[in-house]
Amino acid sequence: MRFIRYLFLAVVGLALVVVALANRGPVDLRIVPDEFATFLPVRNDWSLPLFVVIFGGIVAGLLIGFVWEYFREHRQRAESAQRKRELNRLEREVKGLREKSGEGKDDVLALLE
């Protein structure tokens, strides 16, 4: 299984290198249209290789997806934590009741006490 994982990662890495080599040409990247650029205190356009723009878009999409899923699953994590606390409380209660009733002790020792 480990071999298959490494083979998959090698194929993905090779594909990324091929895409990067095929898209080395510079492109102009603008944050906002030129009409709104006068209101920004930073430079509006950059000249970057196309593969940087492509990989940046992929990374940004992944990050947005991870953050979206984190917030979407918040309710399930909170419910799971609440159930875990309840389970721990009930286990402590059962343990206390067993100690109080003497369950699990030797019957002979229980008679002597």
Report on this model:
The mean pLDDT is about 85. The chain has about 110 residues and is mainly α. The longest helix has 28 residues. The protein has four helices and two strands; from the N terminus they run αββααα. Strands 1-2 form a two-stranded antiparallel sheet. It has one domain. It starts with a helix and ends with a helix. It is elongated and about 90 Å long.
Summary, kept brief:
The protein is mainly α and 113 residues long. Helices cover 69% and strands 9% of the residues. The protein has one domain.
List keywords for this structure.
113 residues; mainly alpha; 4 helices; 2 strands; elongated
Spatial shape: elongated
Q: In angstroms, what is the radius of gyration? A: 30 Å
Regions with little confidence, pLDDT below 50 for 5+ residues: none
Note the total helix count.
Answer: 4
Question: What's the SSE blueprint?
Answer:
Layout: H1 2-22, E1 26-30, E2 45-49, H2 50-72, H3 74-101, H4 107-112
Antiparallel strand pairs: 1-2
